[in-house]
Structures are given as structure tokens and as C-alpha cells.
Amino acid sequence: MPKIVIDGKEIEFKQGQTIIQAAKDNGINIPHFCWHESLSVSGNCRVCLVEVEKMPKLVIACSTTAADGMVVHTASEKTLSARNAVMEFLLINHPLDCPICDEAGECKLQDYAYSHSVGESRFVEEKTHKDKRVPLGPYVMFDGDRCISCSRCIRFCDEIAKDPELTFVKRGDRVTIVTFPGEELDNPYSLNVTDICPVGALTNRDFRFKARVWDMSANKTICHGCSRGCNIELWVRNNEILRITPRQNDAVNNFWMCDHGRINTFKFVNAEDRVDGPQIRKEGSLSKVEWEEAYNFAAAELKKFSKNEIAFIGSPYATLEDNYVLAKFTASFGSKNIDFIRHIDSSFEDDILRKEDLTPNSLGAEAVGVKPGKDGLNLEGVIKGIKEKKIKALYLIEDDIVSAFPELEEYLAKLDLLIVHATNFNKTTALADIIFPAAAYAEKNGTVVNFQGRVQRLKPAISTVETDRALDGMSMSRLDKFGTKYDRWAQGHKYDSKSTWKIISALSNVLGNKIKFNMAEEVFDEISKTITAFSGLDYDVIGELGAQSKLQAIEKNVNA
Amino acid sequence: MAVKKREKDLTFLEKIYIVEIVKGLSLTLKNMFKPKFTMKYPEEKFIPPASYRGRPVLVMDENGEERCVACGLCSRVCPALAIEVQAGETSREKERYPERFEINMLRCIFCGLCEEVCPEEAIVMSKDYELAFDRRADAIYGKDKLLVPINQLKDRIEFLRSYK
Amino acid sequence: MNILGIIIFTFIKILIVLSVMLLTVSYLVYFERRVSAWAQNRLGPNRVGWEGVLQPFADVLKLLLKEDIVPNVANKPIHTLAPIIALFVAFTTYAVIPFGPTVTILGYSIPLVVADINMGVLYVLALTSLGVYAITFAGWSSGSKYSLLGGIRSSAQMISYEISMGFSVGGVLLLAGSLRPEAIVDSQVGWMWNAILQPIGFITFLVSSFAETNRLPFDLPEAEPELVGGYHTEYSSMKFAGFFLAEYANMIVASAMIVTLYLGGWRFPYLESFGLSNGLFAIISVITFCVKVAALLFFFIWVRWSIPRFRYDQLMNLGWKVMFPLSLLNIVWVAILIMVFKL
How many CA atoms lie within 13 Å of C250's alpha carbon, on the beta-carbon side? Predict the structure, then answer.
């Protein structure tokens, strides 16, 4: 392997790598604005200038290919003064509006101004003024003043989203970014430009001014938007999710995620219509009861039905653990009528990240046994059974069967017993006899299996009545650490919800069956012991980036 | 070993102590007839100098709007976590404004760091020291109580500028 | 003079002395607070009533309404007994101190002293040494290290200073030739005050009184910075008030003793030669006594707010190496007075 010397440290690199990439792979950070690992090199910000011995001038590390024997200095006097000069140029026209700017706290320019700049400007003239507050598309707001013309967003649209929409116009210090005439920045990945923008020029309209980054905690988990299972971080303040950002996982989503996942998959968690505490239908209307009463009532009702009169519907939205425990619960009744509803929308799929399966865990649900047993009814059979009144009781977890099959509404209303685990009230809960409040994906530990058969970990990001940020190992912001019950900024509502596996275990105990788990991890350990596809896996092996299971990739049109 | 040296040896008179006691007694006796410093508070009120750090307030400009842009630096720097700021968007030139700005006066320690860190000179320490509550909820001051017209704060702002 | 009359008049005297004592004690607290404030350029309590004159009542009310807390580890009977002893000793000591001449009312000749006994000075010395039990009991029974340390310090301090106190009194007794307080007062007619005749004895007695009453600069038993509250750390409510009142009552007794032994007692110099009527003479004498005591009380307070506390070893040094020899020297001096000047 060829070698290069950076700051006196000899490192190996792959032939064809640039200096900056070689340095990064070896843990040496060379300042950069326009360079991005997944984008082409444009070399226009000039801040990555480094001194290479035997070269007459400084070179930019991002577009200089490393060569064997090269000696690079990233902190020599010459480099530093050049870097200072570049920073001073960049800051000439950059407004001093960090207090107003949403990027403050995660701004590359702000960080570099501290670490690589002398902190004083010799520029006394008026700064240039460009258009501010320009909505480039449905989700992205542009502020021309702040832009440092790194072109990352333009390259992102061209190369990653494959939908060229942005371009530079004008020249010199009047250069700015616009959309092409008649176009909007409305590709399904548009919000990624706000992540890669090194300054606050491009901001997320959905998150604008909602919170300071340092007030939130970032919780690593998995997106629930489709079966891609993009790795994400949930940003939480005062027990409320405020935004989602992607986190790097080269095996799944690289640096990116789609706008659908970013905008539409978290708001239900803190929505008004969350189910808060178990509900029982008494004299026609639902009323909130204690957990114990709900368990006893559900157990008493379930006992009235024979194994063929009862059907169970699992959920591709729920975790492996939830589905596994449901399958076990079904088996304890001797019933084989178990299946789940698939949510397929082929128009959603593209060849970047989005998959047609809109649920995060259909592969996993099937793998842990949510499929009809021998002679058991599958989903169609269950629906038919309900219509023909052969199925008299339905146990449904974390799904909305009425929205999926609207014609079922009248039949479900006539069921003798409908037990639903739901995070939010929906058309199905409107007909339910018992509703157990299920913890949303952001409230529980668990695993999901994406379309590649990759097992990935969900971690709780917001606390429920029974969980605690500190004790349950959630990421803590400063406010979480020091807030008391008397502080309004620490009084965020906690929903009285539980993971489905926990609810079913408790219910089965009331019924006299011993499904006993204390932690999601225990459920997963049993899964890995009993189901060969998951053998050898545990939460530690899965880690933050997931681990491949032995499941084959799901075949297209399984349902067809 | 270094020998500790007395700073000064006592004279015989000082050793006897009686003279020194008489000196001490006469000092306190003299003070008994000097004017008193005590201020009879509720009737007489202390008007603090500009350097005084009373409760922090938000500056309301002549146009009736707050200067604050809800940057959250005061909230971040506050060692007692007394300040909560929720930003919002406005159509003004400075597009950010505090939708909600609350100071928990039970947490506030009057250190003045919020004032020091404020980039807009929007939060300053006032001369108001009369802060008593009988309920926790009363101690949380919102924008309604925090906004003070700038002409009442001229003193403090001048003081701050003279030390910047 | 019949027995009944004596009993009635004695009861009346006890009643008067006791109520005056109690009132004085509570106002002494107020007085101390005002004086300390003046010395520090403050105003002191001036809100309750005119210039705060009702402050003592407010204080007593507050103490009465406080919760009485007794530590679990405390020895409860002794814990309760200690403040009672303190108060009892402080008030009964006063019985032998004459506060005026003998007056004649309704044909009865009544000495203005509760109990005119022969060995009155011994009685006082005996009772004040009983006072150490109150503090030692309090310190021991509280079951707290601060209280215990306070109690130990107190007993050591009292024993040490009682010696110089006793020897100082010796000089007075030599001159008066009697242990009767009345006789001692009578021996100081005119300006023949013991304070003038034997200044060394006066100073040693004064200093020892400070130590015996646990007043600054000798308040080591309750040295706040070291021992929280000393022997009364674990006391609250009225039991605490007991110690508090006893301390001030002791101050009054000590002042009265000093006045009687060294400052001519109730005698106004050469008042007898003015040819006043018996009644007027008695009234002026009583006032004289009160003024002398009040002046001494002021001195007690004044010293407290002027002089810092001694270190414990300094206290012991002073007691044994300075006060004790000085009081002996005083006896020699008195002997010279008697032998050479034939006093």
C-alpha cells in the first residue's frame, strides 16, 4: 500500500484517494466546507489548503490525489496563515446573525471561525445583501446572505437526488443560489441539503426556530417510514420529538433519508390523539381504566371464545419482540389464525432509498411467526371469517385494519370482541372493545428487520409513564439532566403506554399462561435462540449500525 | 527548619492587655453615637446604583417591540437554568422573536451572565429587588412581566456601555 | 414582730424581687440587642411597639409557640432537668443580695433583702457553683458531641475561675470581717469602696464573673463557630428559653454581687449626712443600687460587643497563671492594708 506522511504521521492510503480522504480515514481532520465524502469534488471553498513538500504552492487537500511518499503539513505556519485568510474572506460577507440563525450550534462556519480564524475582520465596508427567506421548495428555506457558495446542495441534487433543481447565478460576491426557472426544490430528498449545508443558508421549514440544537438530545434509532429502515436520530426536547436527522450507515442509507421519513414519521408520537392509558368500552363508549382492570377484563372476555373463533393480527409496524410475543400468545390459545397486514405502495419506491413496503418490519414480523399455522387462516381468511361471522373475536396490534380494508367497518362493529393495541386513536379503535395504549417506536426498545434482512435497533427517545430518561439509558440533554417537576421546560407530557410485548406478557399471566419477559432484550435473546434466522445475534452485536440476519431479501409482491 | 519570626513583639503595656481592652471599649463606645446605616425599609426604599443587579428584564424598544431575537444564549449560559426561551418566526427584519420567554425567579441567582452574553442588549438587570411570591407558579415571569420600556432602563444600559 | 408578719413581708419581697428579675431579664435581652446594634452602627429591633419595647414579649411568644424537640438519644429526665436547675440557681442566688437599707413599714422593721443570712457570700458561691451542673447535665444528656464539649468546657472553666473568684472575695471578707452581705455593704461607707481599696481584687473578681456567667470573651461553652450552640445545641422552645433567661439572670446576679462586694452596694456616698427622712433615704438607696447594677449590665454588654473570644488554652492560662496569683496578691495587699493602715 502506498504511504503518505501527514503532519509527521505516516499513513497508508488506497491508490486514487485524495489527501483529505486519506487523512479522514486515518482520523486526521482537515477543515473543509465544500468537500463531502459522498459528493463529487468541486474545490471552491479553499479552506482545505495544505502545504505539500516540494510543491511550489499550497494545494487543496480535497482535489489533490495522494501520491506515494508525499509529505503533507496541515498545521504549518504557511497553511495556517492561508487558512486564516480563507476564513477571513468567507466571513467578509457572512452576516453576524448567529443569534437569529437556526444553524448556530451545528454550524461548520461557526466552528471554524472559532478554531481556524483570528476572530477579527479588517473589512469595514458594507456587506453584500442578497435575498433572505426564499422558500426554495415545500420544505427548504434559503437565506442568500449566509450562503458561502460551497455548492454542496447543487451537487446533492445533481448527484444523489438525481433531480437537478438548483444552480448558481451571478458572479463575484453577488453569486447566489436559485432554482431553475419554473422548478422548485421538491425532490423527495430535498431536506438533506439542510443537513449538508455548512452554514444556515438552507434550513428546514418544518423545524425552523423550534429549538436550539443544544437544548435537544439526539437519540439514535431507526426510521419507520418504509422498509429501508434508514438510521436516524430523533431530536427531543421536553419529551417531544422536534426533528429527525439521518445518521450515517453506509450499508443502509449512507448519509441520507427521504423527506417523507423526516417529516411524516414522528408527529403522531406527540399528537393530540395518542391513546393515553388503557380504555374499555362501557355502555357503548370508551373510558379510561387502570391497567389491572383492563387486563382482567380482556382476560375474562378472551376466555369466552374457542380457538377457532379468535384471530390475531400482528403488525409490520411493531418490533420483532412485539410480534414474537404475539405469535407465542396466539400459540398459547392453540389458535393458528394469525397474520399481518401488508402496506405496499409501489408508487413510493424509487431507486435511491425509498422502498414500496411502507412498514419497517414486515420481513421480521413474518420471520418471528406472524403467519398462519397449518390450516390456520391467513389475512384474507380472517377477513372472510369476520364477514361470515365465523371469527367472533379479533386481537389486533398496532395497525389500522379499517383504513386498510374500509369495507370491514360494518363487520368489525358486529364482532363480539375487538382488542386493539394502538398508539393513536383511529378508525379501528373507534370500534374496539378494549384498547391497550401501545408505546410508539420512539418510546421503546426493540428491533426491526429491513428489506435487506438487516436487524436494526430501536431505542427509546421519549419517556412514558413507566420509563425514565436516565434509568432507561436514553440520551439526555442538559435540560433533561437538571429539570425538576417544577420547571415548565421539564414537564413534557408522558403518555401512559407500554410496549406491546409487555402488555401481552402481562395479559397472558392473567390468563394463566407463563409468557414472562422483563426486558425487550430477553425477548430478543429467546428469538435468537429459537429462530435460526436470528441465531448468533443479540443487542450488543446489533449495536448502533445493525447486523445482517440470515433472512433472504423479501421477494417482490409477496402478497400477490 | 525555618524559625517563624513574630511580626512584632508586644510591649509590656500591650501584654498587660488592660490598655488594649480600654482602647477597644472606647472604639465601640464611640460608634454607639455615630449615625446609623440602617434603612427603615418599607417606608424608606433603597434606590440602587446603576451597577446593581436586580431582576433581569427584557428591553422594550421605543416602538413597543422586544429587542430579543430568542437566540437562546441567555438560556444556555444561565448557570441556574432559570431562563426558557421558545423562538418563533416573525415578519420583522430580524426574523426570529421570542414566542415565549420565561424566567423562573426562584431559580435566578442574579449573576448577570444573561445580560453579559446577550448579543442584542435585550436582557438587562433592572433595579427591581422586590421579589416575593407565595406560589411557585407566580415566580415564573413571562414576557408580560419581563418587558420593560427602554426609558426606564437607560441607567443600566449606559452603565453597561461604559464598561464594554 | 410576729412570725406571720415576717412571712407575709418575706413573700411580698420574694414576689417583688422575682417579678422585677423576670422583667429585667427579658428587657436585658432587648437592651443587649439594641446596644449591640448601636455599637455596630445599626438600629436594632425597633418595630414591635414604640422603638421595639414590646420585642421581649414577641420573643417569649415565639419561643413558647416553637416545637419542643428532644433528641432520640437524649436522656430525657436530665435533659428536662438541666434548664430548670439553671433557672432555679440563677433566681435563688439573688435572695441574699441587699438592694436597700432596712425600712420600717407598719411598725415592722424590714431589711430590703429577701434573706438576710450570716453566711450570705458563701451561699452565693455555693449556688453559683451549682449552676455548673445545669450546663454539664445539658451537655451530657443531649447526646450530641457539641453539647458534650460545651458542657466539659463549662465545668473546667467554672472550676478554674471559681478559685480566683473565691480568693478575690477573701479580700473583701477580710476587710468587712463578716460573711453577711449587709455587713459588707456597711463596711463600704462613703468612698471606702472595695473597688478603690483593692483594685486588683476588683478586676480579678470582675473577670471571673465574666467567666462564671459564660459571657464573652469567655463564652467558650457555647462558642458558636466551634460548637454550633454549645451545651444548648439540642434545646428548643421553652427549654432553650430557660437557658437563655438563666444566662441573663446570672448577669444580673453577678452585677448585683459586684455592686454589693466592691461598689458600695446600695449606698450613695455620704447620703446619711444629708439628713433625709427614712423613706426618701430608702428610695434613693434602692435607685442607687439599680443604677449601679444597670451600669454594670451595660458594661457586660459593652464588653461582649467589643472583645473577641479567648482561645481555650488562653482562657486556662489566664485563669490559672494570671487571675489566681493576682487574687493571692490581692489578699496580701489587703493584709497590708489591715496591718499597716489599720483599716
Answer: 28
The confidence score (pLDDT) of residue C172 equals 87
Residue A166 · residue A176 · CB < 8 Å: no
| Residue B23 belongs to a domain | no
Confidence of residue B74 (pLDDT cuts 50, 70, 90): very high
pLDDT tens figures, C281-291: 888 888 988 99
Q: Is A23 exposed, middle or buried (0-12, 13-18, 19+ CB in 10 A)?
A: buried
> CATH no. for residue A256?
3.30.70.20
On the question of pLDDT at C145 being above 60, the answer is yes
Do A and B touch, 3+ Cβ pairs within 8 Å? The answer is yes
Cell numbers found for residue A59: 494545494
Bridge partners, A419 (sequence order): A395, A434
CA angle A356, A361, A366 (to 5 degrees): 105
Residue A117 lies in a domain: no
Picking from B23, B25, B41 by the largest number of C CB atoms within 10 A of its own CB, the best residue to mutate is B25
Residue span of the structural domain in which B85 resides: 56-162
pLDDT of residue C343: 65
A530 and A417 in one domain?
A: yes
Contact (CB, 8 A) for B96 and B71 = yes
- pLDDT at residue C53 greater than cutoff 70: yes
Which residue range(s) make up the domain with A414? 279-548
Does residue A559 form part of some domain?
A: no
Contact C125, C162 (CB under 8 A): yes
Considering the domain architecture, whether residues A390 and A514 belong to the same structural domain is answered as: yes
Strands A310-314 and A393-397: parallel
- Here the ipTM equals 0.83
Pairs of CB atoms within 8 A across A/B: 49
- Report yes or no: A309 and A394 within 8 Å, Cβ to Cβ: no
Instruction: For residues A138 and A64, state if they share a domain.
Output: no
Please choose, from the candidates C256, C292, C245, the residue with its C-alpha nearest in 3D space to the C-alpha of residue C113: C256
Residues A77 and A132 in one domain: no
Interface test mutation site (partner A, options B67, B68, B69, B71, max chain A beta carbons within 10 A): B71
Q: List, for residues C191-209, the tens digit of each pLDDT value.
A: 788 888 888 889 899 988 8
SS3 A487: coil
Instruction: Nearest by CB to B89, from A99, A209, A482: name it.
Output: A209
Q: What is the mean pLDDT of residues B72-93?
A: 92
- pLDDT per position as a tens digit, A78-106: 999 999 999 999 999 999 889 999 999 99
In a domain, A287, yes or no: yes
What are the percentages of helix, strand and coil residues in chain C, rounded to 5?
A: 70, 0, 25
From the CB of residue C149, how many other CB atoms can be counted at a distance below 10 Å? Answer: 20
CB A194 within 8 A of CB A206: no
